[in-house]
Amino acid sequence: MSALVGIDVGGTAIKGGAVSTGGEIITRREIPSGIDEGPEAVVERLAGLARELGAVDALGLGVPGLLDRERGVVLSSPNLRPLDDFPLRDELARRLAIESGNVRIENDANVAAIGEHWLGGARGESHVLLVTLGTGVGGGLILGGRLFLGEGGGGEVGHTVVDAAGPLCGCGQHGCLEVLASATAARRRAREAGLTEDLEELAAAARAAPGAERDLLRAVGGDLGRGLGTVVTLLDLRCFLIGGGFGRALDVLRAGVAEGIAERTTGPGRAGLRILCAELGPDAGWIGAARLAC
Ligand SMILES: [Zn+2]
User: Fold this and answer.
1) Taking the complete model, does pTM exceed 0.85, yes or no?
2) Within a domain: 183
3) Do residues 12 and 135 touch, judged by C-beta distance below 8 A?
4) How far does residue 16's CA lie from ligand 1's centre (Å)?
């Protein structure tokens, strides 16, 4: 069996690798995105990396932002503006001399969920939501063992409204989970509270002793929990996987998360809830993308 190749395109780095169909990681690579050089240069880099990784007849691609999956086009991506409306899938397929249909393109949070479900912290789970706490809050929903997209944009938990009186979000609503519990939001909240904006330091201080840092992370965790509580009520989901750079602070967010969920749920939905750490870190995206290349 040939290896599966996946690539995760980010605003600053492109990560890729090859995995055996049995789930063994064969190789991984990381190169700068060079997004400012324009779409042609980026697609050249992607093709070069795909060849290096051995993508002879299929490739999976994770891309941040809103996608037109039918046409293989990135409609809008705040971190990859030069790629907006660029026929990424077809241009890549042409350079690799493979069929367009064999280049599978999916949103970055969704490929991360697929990766964690295949080889990471959500292995064996039927129903799980991956929540990625980074620059924004990404969501990837697995239902019945498969990625759930609804009509195409499903799983976007980052833009569920937690506090309608909260800060304005980039999406135009107020108080989305993203403006309350992303890494960016946590830094802003720390700054407003007169605390360090370094989230590693903030988490370390919260772990070390009770105080303002612990209180702040409990409050941020509370907002995350209120967001997840809505999901528990709607879907009776019992397993959440928390990833992204700020997800590493889950140990100090956890008390708040539990309070927030309890506040927004009633009845049996709360029983047996598991809030787990994502396991694959920055590899989740390309591993999930590789899974798409099956
Ligand atoms: Zn929003």
Assistant:
1) yes
2) yes
3) no
4) 29
